[in-house]
Please model this.
Amino acid sequence: MPISYQSETRTFQLDTAHTSYILRVYDGGYLFHEYWGRRLRPVDLTRLHRAYGSGFSPNWPGAPDREHSLDLFPAEYPVYGGGDYRAPALEAAFPDGSRLLDLQYVSHTIRPDKPALPGLPSLDGGDGTLEITLADPTNGLKAVVSYTVYEDSDVIARHARIVNDTGETVRVNRALSASVDLPSMDYDMIGLYGAHTRERQVERVPLRHGMQALESRRGASSHQMNPFLALAAPNADETTGEVYGLTLIYSGNFIASAEVDSFNVTRVQIGLNPFDFSWKLEPGETFTAPEAVLTYSAEGLGRMSRNFHRVFRGHLGRVKETVRPNPIVINNWEATYFDFDEEKLCALIESCKGLGIDTFVLDDGWFGHRNDDTTSLGDWFINRKKLPRGLKPVIDCCHANGMNFGLWFEPEMVSEDSELYRAHPDWAIKKEGRPFCTGRDQLVLDLSRPEVVAYLKETIGGILAENDIFYVKWDMNRHITDQYSAGLPADRQPELLHRYMLGLYSLLDDLTSRFPQVIFEGCSGGGGRFDAGLLYYMPQVWTSDDSDAIERLKIQAGTSMVYPPRCMTAHVSAVPNHQVRRVTPFRTRGLVAMSASFGYELNPLSLSGEERAAIAEQTACYRRVNNLVAAGDFYRLASPFEGDAAAGADDAAWMFVSPDRSRAFAVYVRRLTTPAGPARVIRLQGLDPDAVYHIDELDGDFGGDELMYAGLATPYFMADFEALSFTLTRRV
Ligand code: DGJ
Model:
């Protein structure tokens, strides 16, 4: 068991293959953090964590001396009101107005399995779980902090449960999932910020004293900031240096922060955003915080990402490898937008014959009287003007042409111009009697209300039951504002956004369990909700509404920091590209898209014979590399965030390596070409240095050592936006 407890020192040690995480119950019962980093033999580290200055840091009741202050010790689950002025993980208010807390060790259990988190997505399996119960000796409020070890991926999953054993109603105002005090500020903070059509851009800044936070207040994990934070040693790069990575299995408001105190201790935290959150906890009730996923890598950012990928591929809901092979999809959105009918769709489907595409997805516009984006959301019945005979002829046409059928929904939304809204205006999130905001002319349904969730279970479930649907694209095209629920009493209004997520998860749990054969693709105006919470139910997400291959280099590289490439949907789209008007070679669009869950977003009827032949070749190639993309280890070789045209390095490169290192697939994309530029050599990674690999595209054999240590030279490119692939097979 990778979890041990030394009763003499009251120390817990959690070991993974390469890391250790150590915590300890200190004298009186405080739970302190001792260590997180490279794997250690059992050790007593308390001496490392003493700060020397104690002025203005209050001493806890009965403290042995003036240096014993919660302000100075590394907390494991810090609270408000006991002399620690740094950000707490837990804040609660009691009926007498008091918010003071003090958590002391009560008991612990070590178990081989991992209980699921009620109502929330979480990792399964693992190699053992430690649960420590802490309680306030005065009022009895309890916090159970939970840790599950994933040895082979160097991951620890953490969450906390707040148990109200006080006999009174308590308001939980903040309940984070993880908090760790690291004894240094010598790190860069890395986050993934972005915007609609420009998601998950990597940003790296040195830590400074004080609080620095990444968060979403939008009711969704958002395009603007992803629930992820890494602390990387200043010299850490893709292959070397210390990196701590944290992410959250949650799709709503989050906070991920690093606070550096006067003694250069960094408190790193992640959890549900306390902004606009307060939860009324009745006596006997428990509040469960979402699960955080923590990993440490001594081998740079690449290893951190592979740790996340491995644990998600092995333990995160439907991302798990056994579920399915990735389909090759064609989606009609950029081909037709709202302008289609049965005849047009069938012509499009028929023209896919011979291309190797296996799934046709009918996007927005098939329901209500929706001919543009201003109407009909909520009216999930056929638009008879466009499809007088319903979906069946379109589905039959797919089947007749050897393809499966997929359908677009936006279940969480309602248009003002809809039968649903006219019948139930109070089902939308807004305050009756106040003017309200719309986004894309739509409102958000109040999924905190059980009757709304029940309606969606029945309606969406009904369509899935009545039709042969293989794939669902689940969109969500605005964020939440005008936060008010007609279904909640006044004192529970600050519960709305978390209750919304619980309602969404219950809906997704119902639909994915009732229709296990259906592949669900998440989408929120592209990648506005690309997080591990959604991925639990929807194993792939439309990564961005920007389908331009060159923009996708950054978006997909940023996304790969945390999420396995197989979870990103990427499609080859027409040129000039619909978002940036850029013209890129078909081959480049193909190689960028096939490094993810592959497909097309164009009208096959307007393709040249040459382009059709290219598609047939691309789909065949994807089938050959699909299992590498799905199950291989991913290595970033050249960063699109660091491109430098003058140095001949305005480029990006990445590769997939099979777990046994016998096969690999690498892609190199050059953005702007440079006349008479210097040579550009790319070093591969993850290969067996002692093996010899055949590279199909070069028709030659190369040593693994040569490819990794000396590298491969890229040719001179006569045009911009060219790309190359390298398909490697081990010979010996
Ligand atoms: C936003 C999505 O990201 C697009 O792919 C498309 O489905 C539109 N919504 C449809 O309205």
Notes: The mean pLDDT is 96. The two ends are 37 Å apart (CA to CA).
